[in-house]
Amino acid sequence: MTGGAGFIGSHLVKRLLDEGREVVVADDFSRGSVRNLLDLGIRIECPKVDLRDYGRALGVVEDADVVYHLAARVGSVEYLHGSELDELRALQDNLVIDANVFRACVEACVKKIVYASSVSVYPIDVQQKPGVTLSEDDLSYYNPEGGYGWCVSGSTRIITYDGLKQIQYIKPLKDFVLGKDGKWHKVLAVHRRRLLPNERFVLFKPSRGMAFWVTPSHQILTSEGWRKIDQITPYRPGGRKNTELLEPIPCVSQEKPPSKLGFRYKGYKSTVVCTEGFWRLIGFWLAEGTLERFTGVFAEPGYISLAQKDKEVLEKYLDVIRRLDIDPHAKINGPHKNGMCILRFWHEGLWHWLFNNFITKLETWKNVREKTVPLWLVALSDSDFASFFAGWYEGDGKHESDPKRKALGVSTSSEYLAGRMYTVMRARGVNCSLSIRRTNAKENHIVTWLGSHYQNNGHFINKVYSKKEAYAYDLEVEGEDGYSLPGCLIHNSKLIGEMQLGWMRDVDVGIARIFNVYGECEPLDETAHVIPALMRKAILYPKEGFVVWGDGNQSRCLIYVSDCVDALMRLEDKASSSKIIVNIGSDREVSIRTLAEKIVGLSGKDIEMVFDPAKPTGPVSRTADISKARALLGWQPRVGLDEGLRRTYLWAEKRLMST
User: Has residue 539 been placed in a domain?
Assistant: First the structure.
């Protein structure tokens, strides 16, 4: 039982022990406590276990026949959505915990898994309408609460270890993407589905990145925390302070770049010193150069060419080649009929060094090799890197440059090169942007070195995706809840846990989408949900004011904890390889105002209720369709709201008075 010392978990442990089952409890006590077990009369060994550690997860489940997986980071509206750091930690921890527990279950040959999912997997925009009843079929894997889900079009470019890549060409288990921690994380799966008739993409444009199609209510990381795309404040010069988009600083290996290169060829030794002039030559080759045999010219490996219409530019690099003693016989030919002049020189060692470091190692999705840059350029000295960029700029620059605003842009058709250069510059702390320009059928990627005063803002363009057939994509990333696009970070999670279970074989699975549960042993502190929070305020009144968040018109379906436990145990019996999914909740809706009045009545006090619409309220309405649970499990709630509230209030009063 993961999360066995928590609110629902402790009640479930008691029921299982009462039926003579042998139970092993795993909990990190971040929200649960041993006191929950003691209050229920349970005497059981309960070691502290951090399930983010795979070894600990495996040790817990290795002898189990059945695993009830309830462990998760959860909290109230204020706790989870009041702080972007709390939300980030919760999302990341849940992904890691789920992945570790499921992997451990497979390795330990566990026969059954009962997974506590959440109502939060359902579309949040649907829950913003009054009187909504949610059934299992309402989950379309788009726009669930919290912004999880498939959200972007297949042409969206994301930052990978190899460079820029469209999400539709990402290869699971081979590609690595940049997480919000700045580290590279393996892509476990690429999810794709057809866009539904009631869905739409809008265009979003970060000022330091390229525009991409995304569902408008999906979330993006900003200086104010996670924000929905359509809530991002657009940039207005001289206007109110606008929202800044956050993106991670890449962490790359600090492999040292060479200070000199030593080569041998058929008994001939050569040393090339890596001066500022050398790095400028390499940068210019990146823009205008070729390795002749690699590009199809019938010549032995070793011939390197630079092409440019301006012969004076080539003469400058010819001087560098001779001063560095790369090839004393190098010469310039042309101009040819197309107006181009060619600087051609030979150095077999330098040819192979360029091929190994500046040409993609793997075949790209286009089935061609492309130019790239090694990540060790991050460790170049400032002067050497400035020279390298100056050479690249001299060849492919001046296309997006703005001397007055100190912005230097370089254009390349290679998305691998553009993505790698953007990663290198970001890792060096350079303020830069990566955009795309389309002319006819050609795409050019623009890497721009920006002045330090440039901010990274963004805005959505109210333009609807017009193609008839569109697909929504998302990634499952190992140990991460988000991935980086140029200029921003979007995220992808209980929903991902359900997906992972759906792919598992040789194990029976039951998934419970749990709605609002209340009862004894639920936290009464600042992380409390609505019922224990209101009960705490009533019990402590008038020392604590009885403030109800919102106007009281929002509604919930509420289920007493013993009914939830009964449903979970019945789900264990019905779990199968076809992955049973059921709602666990109530089909009776009650407003928060009515709920507050009932709790005030239980207190017996003359309490003045204050409604605060400025406070976060969560969804407007969420009621469970439990017809499937009735049919499959033979289950329905038995404890009425008034009786459940009475039991819970007596427990809460005793707990608070004792502390």
Answer: no
Please compute Rg for the chain using Cα positions: 30
Looking at 310-411, list the stretches that DSSP marks H as alpha helix, in order from N- to C-terminal side. 311-323, 348-358, 382-396
- Rounded CA-CA distance 411/400 in Å is 8
Is 501 in a helix, a strand, or coil?
A: helix
Asked if residue 275 and residue 217 are part of one domain, the reply reads no
- 511 vs 121: CA distance, rounded Å: 12
pLDDT in tens, 588-641: 999 999 999 999 999 999 999 999 888 777 778 888 999 999 999 999 999 999
Range of the domain at 242: 149-247+456-491
Enumerate residues 6+ apart whose C-beta is below 8 A from 339. Answer: 309
Based on the number of CB atoms within 10 Å of its own CB, is 443 exposed (0-12), middle (13-18) or buried (19 or more)? exposed
Angle between helices 84-107 and 495-503 (to 10 degrees): 10
pTM: 0.59
Coil, strand or helix: which one is 432? Answer: strand
Dist. CA 140–CA 423, nearest whole Å: 35
Does 71 map to a domain? Answer: yes
β partners of residue 222: 225, 245
* Tokens (6 digits) for 571: 């789900």
- Token readout for 243 is 């929202």
Distance (Å, rounded) from C-alpha 53 to C-alpha 119? 27
The full 3-state SS of 583-603, as one line of letters, equals: EECCCCEEEHHHHHHHHHHHH
Is the N-terminal amide bond of 172 cis, ω within 30° of 0?
Answer: no
Write down the pLDDT at residue 144. 44
In the block, which residue shows the tokens 């004011």?
A: 545
Q: 388: closest CA among 330, 340, 320?
A: 320
Closest CA to 71 of 24, 139, 39: 24
Q: Residue 432: name the closest of 159, 191, 224, 656 by CA.
A: 159
In 397-482, alpha helices (H): 415-427
Same domain, 156 and 291: no
Q: How far, rounded to the nearest angstrom, does the alpha carbon of residue 495 sit from its chain's CA centroid? A: 13
> What's 331's domain CATH number?
3.10.28.10
Residue 528 token pair: 């409390």
Give the whole-angstrom CA distance, residue 91 versus residue 73. 8
Q: How many residues does the chain have?
A: 659
Tokens 């990634």: give the residue.
475
Residue 598 lies in a domain: no
Q: What does the pLDDT look like over 381-431, one tens digit per residue?
A: 999 999 999 999 998 886 444 555 567 888 888 888 999 999 999 999 888
Place of tokens 């919930």: 556
Please give the Cα distance from 274 to 264 (Å, whole number): 17
Residues 6+ apart with CB under 8 A from 620: 127, 128, 129, 130, 132, 553, 554, 555
The Cα 658–Cα 654 span in angstroms is 6
Among 625, 629, 609, which Cα is nearest to 549's?
A: 609
Shared-domain flag, residues 362 and 227: no
Task: Check which CATH number belongs to the domain holding 653 and give it.
Answer: 3.40.50.720
